[in-house]
Fold these 2 entries.
Entry 1:
Amino acid sequence: MKLTRRETLALGLAATTVTVLPFRAVAAAEDQIAAFTGGADIGSGDITLTAPEIAENGNTVPIGVEAPGAVSIMVLAMGNPNPDVGTFNFGPLAGSQSASTRIRLAGTQDVLAIAKMGDGSFIQTSSTVKVTIGGCGG
Amino acid sequence: MRTILTAGSFAVVALLAAPALADPDEDNLVINDELQMVTETAAPAHMEHVDTIYSGWRFRTDETQALQIDDFENPAMIFVDQGMDLFNSVDGTEGKSCASCHEDVAAFAGFHAEMPKVMNGKLVVMEDFINGHRARAMGAEPWKWSGPEMQAMVALIGLQSRGMPMNVKIDGDAAPYWEQGKEMYYTRYGQLELSCANCHEDSYGLMIRADHLSQGQINGFPTYRLKQAKLISRHNRFRGCIRDTRAETFAEGSDEFRALELYVASRSNGLSVETPAVRQ
Amino acid sequence: MASGVKPRVKVPKTASAGETITIKTLISHPMESGQRKDKEGNLIPRSIINRFVVEFNGENVIDVTMEPAISTNPYFEFEAVVPESGEFVFTWYDDDGDVYTTSKNIEAS
């Protein structure tokens, strides 16, 4: 079989896609989500994920989550070798269902936040963070 | 040989010709809502090719900048706290701590702004000063140049001068060291044949691959770098830059880096001491 | 234990009863992810703080499950309601079994 230039390019692109989204990580994320939701449907609603559009360094990316009325909020970094980031469980003395932290992102990817609401329903939102690499190391 | 050189020069041009993300931003640095910092001012008279000097803070993204505007947000302050513990810890054969002689670290206000400087006929940088006192007054082992204890102490002493203008002396007995440092600044090193000036004087504001090039000011060192998640010494940063030119680098604590430190510090004369800053 | 672990917390000294306040916390910890290799190519074992809990007078404010994707020197910011005067207790749980605790009093009027 002889490949045209265009077909070769397409093959290359397909290979790249596989590299970017390893099946293992995606499966791990799906497992995490299933464990959190118990397989329930996830809708959209009043949930906010604050993250920079571009992170200068993937080692320390500031993020914030907020979902009024949530019992807990799980954060996943879909492109990390281990997608789990953490889960915020809000107690009776929480002043709001919001929290901020700093996280590691292995590369440009989607960050996902899923909130479990007081009535047992689930809502989610996501945000793409571009992580710049290839600058001057120290 | 000529071919290789040409190829090298071409690579450098390509490296620096990325689309300009442009110049420093217009943000104003006020720390803890009260300490106004000078992040832009007229270049000191000795700088021939630059009119205005800018803090590296002005070249960073809003998220990185935010980490420096509040001392609680600034992760470097963990290490300043550790420095304070070390300041009060007895170490060495004499049974003394820093505090045994210096009592209040606040007495070091202004000291960092004038470092490095010539003391007793030798160019002394802060790490020399600290290890010198550890040896002579405390009978203690020297700390490793870029080790956590040393940089915590440099950061603690540096913090006492935060907000004061950098003001290192370049004439008189400092002149020969300063001249040596200046010559290094304009010398092309490594396989990429890059001098400090190629990036930090000729090309600041441009992107070098994914990095927004600053003027390479050192008024915020030791700096908490997000990449390493710890305090980075001035000499460690010099070493990193020279290594990136694919050169054999000088050692931390070498006379060459002392001289370069004096010269680079003199290029920030007039900017506020930002120690400890936060960078990418 | 991870060496030199040092917690910092920022809590206002006073509040009016029922007020919502902002709390910030930072703790020095390498948060070794278990993904990195040493110079010899051996995997450096995971060693992180895996849980962070805040209570006020014994009642829960926030309980965070932490994974290796939390950055070195973990930072958290969140809000708490202060119903009366009392004590916030902050606890970090290390993989190696160590527990780091610090507390702050607040005066409610």
Note: Chain B touches chain C at residues 72-73, 75, 77-79, 81-82, 148, 229-230 (CB under 8 Å).
Entry 2:
Amino acid sequence: MLEARDIAVSYGLHEALNGVSLTVDRGEIVVMLGANGAGKSTLLKALTGICEGSVSGDCFLCGQTVTGLKPDLIVEAGLALVPEGRGIFPDLSVAENLTLGAYPARARAVEKETLARVLELFPKLQDRRSQIAGTMSGGEQQMVAIGRAMMSNPDILLLDEPSLGLSPILCGELFRALHKIKETGMGVLLVEQNARQSLAIADRGYILENGRITGAGKADALANDPAVQRAYLGGAQA
Amino acid sequence: MDIVISGLLLGGAYALVAMGLNLQYGVARIMNLANGEVLVLGGLAAFWAFVSFGLSPLLTLFLIAPLAFAGSWAIYALFLRPLVKRAKSRGQLEVDTILATFGMSFFFVGLMVSLQAEYFTYSFLAWPISLLGSTVAANRLVAALVAAAIAAALYLWLNRSRSGLAVRAVAVSPGSARLVGIDVGKVSALAFSLGGMVTALGGCLISTFVTLDASAGVLFTMKALIIVIMGGVGDIRGAIIAALILGLVETAVATIVDPGLTLVAAYAIFLAVLLFRPQGLFGRRSA
């Protein structure tokens, strides 16, 4: 499981995160809700070692510390990120993108099985194997990005606003796919603004406001919390 | 026909050198202006081995490869990695490495002048052979064939192997490459060293049919630059086609117009590419 303790990030004098602690277990979906600028992306960058600000705090993966490791070693330790904007290799084919996902040593032994699982989850990628990834639609590129991250055989999968820019139908498909990923035993940490759909599939959630965690709890409890409803669910349900 | 054959043979050697610079610039993001000097060093090694020990340049290749690889790795680790670490943007890294490698090229020229101030003249396979009805020097044909073999091996490695795929991933997007567990620093060093190795091998081959001297490097740097820009940065296939075009045009101009005008012709192509297809022959327009 993933455990972050007291993560703080600052960019120069600007403090982006302060005292953020969280846990994500294998086989559960945890959603981090927050408005634009709350520090959600910064948190995922800090956890995966690609944050350009100064980071403090501790991060453990299955009891082993990954604080301050280089990003490629963090992937090797079992933490995979689907970044904002997807971060696929646009000039390479879908198959090459997926193969690159299995670059870490931890992924090689089970590469065939993982690939079969990814293609079962996203059957469209099977037909598009030789297509250049950058020429696909946004939703298809998101599948490539998630598939590629799964290929590294991670313990915990981190996703930065995967629903951004997707149509409601594609969003629904995406969240159903995440639910299936969780059932394979992977832990999922999802950073989202789309509170309604993400809380519907999540087990637990955190609320991030101005760089601090201001709320935490079971997903259904959060969905019924009047404050959360007002801030993130448009208040219409209340 | 003579022009086509000679041009393609010359282009074959150019292709190898341009692949070297392409690896260094397209993957490691180092615009190496000392590329031509590394080429001439390869030629000097071939000359020296031939004159001192009577060693065939084709055997010297096997000595040059590990030495050039190790030497390039050392240059990257000692002089270039600090620049890579310091650079905040790709633009800054380009400016810094252009200056650093420009200085390095003078160091190499000075080194080579002190080792061998005269022309590197030796005669290897200098007999004529007939090829598809035209006559070419055997050394040109051998050099082009060996260059093609090395280029093919490199191409297959880049396109068929996992480590080659990692190199291409870094060329496409270093930011994403680290997310799939690729050590971008290590792959960059590898690409730079392979680039240096391939360039030195190209120099060894070219020295069998072109008389080099210590200061000839800059010409080859310019030609490699023209080929890389024309073929598209990071595009190996484009570099090969561009190298063959350059070889053909240079030979055609030298035979039909005047040998003194080959460089003019090369720059004319370069200008045309920059004006009309700045992304290279096969490059996609960046969004």
Note: The CA atoms of residues 40 and 216 of chain B lie 7 Å apart.
